[in-house]
Design a protein that fits this description.
Keywords: Carbohydrate metabolism, Glycosidase, Hydrolase, Polysaccharide degradation, Signal
Structural class: mainly beta
Distance between the termini: 39 Å
Family: Belongs to the glycosyl hydrolase 12 (cellulase H) family.
CATH topology: Jelly Rolls
Number of strands: 20
CATH architecture: Sandwich
CATH superfamily: Glycoside hydrolase family 11/12, catalytic domain
Number of helices: 1
Number of domains: 1
Radius of gyration: 18 Å
Strand content: 25-35%
InterPro entries: ConA-like_dom_sf, GH11/12, GH12
Pfam families: Glyco_hydro_12 (PF01670)
Length: 359
């Protein structure tokens, strides 16, 4: 069950360009710490790939540009979103599991525990920005319904082998991936798409960061499909809290809990099998400290994957406060989704659709 509990004992200094400080971000608006690990390493550009859920992260120097950037410091594309230009096709995936349902999101039947959701915003977005890369670190500028987001391929773990990731708008596919967990339980990779100020210097103008006091609602939805992949990976939201420039704590929402790797922190015995107001399903809460920063995780039970969910992020913020588990920070810096992959091989693991709507 818990090969990665040693993550909290991680203390190490990364390669040149990294910060050894316990502060996730000392005021630099570029580099930021990974959720559950040491501060991100970077080259002279100040960029960093993100790790999440309890590990360190490093980068070979992702560079910024008007198009798509590669981790070797080579910028491709002179403009537009994505490496091969934009497309206005709708996201893949049809009627899938109902909000909070389980099962494979690529099917057209409701998942266990969730009826079809006719009011869903998922599956209807106009996607722009497409590309395909086998670079360990690559950044793609994409959009959904005209709202910009950033995608990072993010093969940051020490056990990373290789991968090929393709994307269109906020949907992406891990076509192939090989690798293994690090000696301290670090995931090999965390391919991610996000809105807000996250772990690379690109900050899409999507409405985040935003002070919590100004947010009436922060709706988000994600649909993904495992496509037969039953191995050691999660499917998780990574929500960064702070003051708009500095990172102060993490909230994670795990829609899939693998059998051998667990979130950073410890299971909170007082908060197992709990519900969150306005959010479907039950959750097991893990919480603790990571690199001097607090983290709260809401985790689906093993074997009860949710392939689709839509919720208001502020309901999780309020749930943490109600339980006395709130993290510091008066601003939602970023909302990200992706797959922490501890072990390959992975083939055609899909993130079908993702959106963030700030009101």
């Amino acid at each position: 069950m818990a090969e990665s509990l040693a993550l909290l004992t991680l203390t190490a200094t990364l390669a040149a360009g990294c910060s050894g400080s316990s502060d996730a971000d000392d005021g630099d608006t570029g580099a930021a710490a990974s959720s559950g690990g040491l501060p991100s390493a970077s080259a002279s550009t100040g960029d960093a790939a993100s790790g999440s859920g309890g590990s360190i992260s490093s980068s070979n120097g992702v560079t910024s540009g008007a198009g798509v950037t590669s981790g070797a410091g080579v910028t491709s594309g002179a403009g537009g979103a994505g490496s091969t230009g934009g497309s206005t096709t709708a996201g893949t995936g049809g009627a899938a599991a109902g909000t909070g349902g389980s099962g494979d999101a690529s099917s057209t039947t409701a998942g266990t525990g969730g009826a079809a959701n006719p009011g869903s915003e998922l599956g209807n977005g106009a996607m722009e920005g497409s590309g395909r890369s086998s670079e360990r670190y690559e950044t793609g500028l994409v959009s959904r319904d005209g709202t910009p987001y950033v995608l990072i391929t993010n093969g940051w773990g020490p056990g990373f082998g290789n991968h090929t990731v393709s994307w269109e708008g906020t949907s992406f596919t891990v076509e192939s991936m090989s690798g293994s967990a690090g000696s301290m339980g670090q995931p090999a990779s965390y391919p991610t798409v996000f809105c807000g100020r996250y772990s690379v210097k690109e900050v899409p103008d999507c409405g985040l960061p935003a002070p919590s006091s100004s947010i009436k609602s922060l709706r988000t939805g994600w649909r993904w499909a495992k496509n037969g992949n039953e191995g050691q990976y999660n499917a998780a939201y990574d929500i960064w809290m702070g003051n708009g420039t500095q990172l102060r704590g993490y909230l994670m929402v795990w829609l899939r809990d693998p059998t051998r790797y667990q979130p950073a922190g410890q299971p909170n015995a007082a908060h197992q099998g709990v519900t969150v107001a306005n959010v479907p399903g039950k959750w097991n809460i893990w919480n603790g400290m990571v690199n001097g920063l607090p983290i709260v995780n809401w985790v689906r039970a093993e074997g009860q994957d949710s392939s689709e969910i839509e919720f208001d992020v502020m309901d999780f913020v309020r749930d943490a406060e109600t339980r006395g588990l709130s993290v510091p920070g008066d601003t939602v810096n970023a909302v990200a989704v992706g797959f922490e992959i501890w072990e390959g091989p992975i083939t055609n693991l899909k993130s079908l659709d993702f959106y963030v709507d700030v009101n």
